[in-house]
Design goal:
This protein has 392 residues and is an all-alpha fold. The protein is built from 16 helices and 2 strands. Helix content is 74%, strand content 1%.
């Protein structure tokens, strides 16, 4: 695996770990009691991590297609083979735990909706209580279908379809923030297209990777994301405007991660820098007047990127040394981030209600069981299906 992919896999691992920690603090009573705006600085990054998954997905698909172009059938087959064996097994596990913990009668329609997956957060098609993280897979599958069916032609990208997709995404972002009550299915369809614009931002980051981004700008970009994520713009759980701005602000960071090391002179782009500066300034002013947070918390989020930039300026060598030591294990863990993301929630639900064991034992059981499930999925199940279908 090259350095560029190591960086992306490491970010995947960190995003999956962030989701895991977020759900531990939400579900485990002994940890949930410490939830507040201050601890959220470190523990409440579940939705933001999913947005990072979407961005990385767009980047990886572009890099993969660039290195090895595929036909429509090849692309969709590869995506189905990667997503569905583990997903279906997780849904079976979830259905069993759902029956055990919540006494929910088995429903074939419910099972199929989660396994396809077409279950939605707005409950028009219900998610399992013991594994609501499946919601993001309906978006990911939609992105892959749009790209595979409409944007690939004879192992080449159909640029016109990509542009049309982006325009539809922008239109649906606009429709999502209008004060109208749409039918639930139509609202979900609009949201699919609206959030697909975030995936496309990741996709086009690769196209513009010659743009200027250095380590200092990357640090500023990375630590500006918490500020963006805490904005209340349209008060939707999945506010497409906020998360589109989040994706734009993340661009200098990801541009730095996928830069070519042999590329000594990067092209400067004042438009990118000015866009970043305007969004950051506007976000800081908006949060400064947001009374949902205490003045101390607002100061923390607003000054975090500048504080980390100063720290990096003084201790940059130490930061790079630490990163060089952890990137390989994180990149290795990133290969299993999909399984970790899908399986952790039902396992937490399974153990969290047991009152007869201590918190430490409960946490150990969650960690050990999750690790065993990841091993079985990634080292037994996935290789079996890869061999089965690639040999045919």
């Amino acid at each position: 695996m090259n350095t560029r992919n190591n960086n992306l896999e490491a970010m995947r691992a960190l995003a999956a770990i962030a989701v895991f920690i977020c759900h531990l603090f939400s579900l485990v009573p002994e940890m949930a009691r410490y939830k507040n705006h201050f601890t959220n600085l470190f523990t409440n990054w579940g939705t933001e991590s999913v947005i990072v998954f979407f961005i990385i997905s767009g980047i990886v698909i572009h890099l993969s297609f660039e290195n090895q172009p595929k036909t429509k059938i090849e692309f969709i087959k590869n995506r189905v083979l990667r997503l569905y064996p583990i997903l279906i097994c997780c849904v079976i596990l979830t259905a069993v735990i759902e029956r055990m913990i919540f006494k929910t009668p088995f429903s074939l329609t419910h099972f199929i909706a989660n396994a396809l997956p077409i279950a939605t957060l707005d409950t028009s098609i219900t998610l399992y209580q013991s594994n609501p993280v499946i919601w993001s897979l309906s978006f990911e599958v939609f992105f892959y279908l749009c790209f595979g069916l409409f944007c690939i032609g004879n192992k080449k990208l159909n640029k016109n379809m990509l542009y049309l997709w982006a325009i539809l995404g922008l239109i649906c972002i606009y429709l999502n923030v209008q004060p109208y009550v749409y039918p639930k299915v139509l609202a979900h369809f609009f949201l699919l297209f609206a959030l697909s614009f975030i995936w496309l931002i990741g996709f086009y980051i690769v196209k513009f990777r010659q743009l200027y981004s250095n380590s200092h700008l990357a640090i500023l970009s990375l630590f500006s994301l918490p500020l963006l994520s805490r904005l209340h713009l349209f008060f939707d759980y999945l506010d497409p405007v906020k998360y589109t701005l989040f994706a734009i602000i993340s661009s200098p960071f990801f541009l730095y991660l996928i830069r070519k090391r042999e590329q000594s002179a990067l092209a400067k782009n004042n438009l990118l820098l000015w866009t970043y500066a305007i969004i950051l300034l506007g976000s800081a002013i908006t949060l400064a007047y947001d009374e949902h947070y205490s003045p101390f918390i607002r100061v923390c989020y607003i000054f975090l990127p500048f504080f980390m930039l100063i720290m990096f300026s003084f201790f940059g060598k130490l930061f790079r040394y630490i990163y060089s030591k952890i990137i390989k294990p994180l990149a290795h863990m990133g290969k299993f981030s999909y399984s970790l993301y899908l399986v952790h929630y039902p396992i937490i639900v399974l153990f969290v209600g047991i009152q007869t064991i201590s918190f430490v034992i409960k946490l150990l059981l969650i960690l050990i069981t999750t690790s065993i499930a990841i091993y079985l999925f990634e080292f037994k199940l996935q290789p079996y299906f890869n061999k089965l279908f690639k040999s045919n």
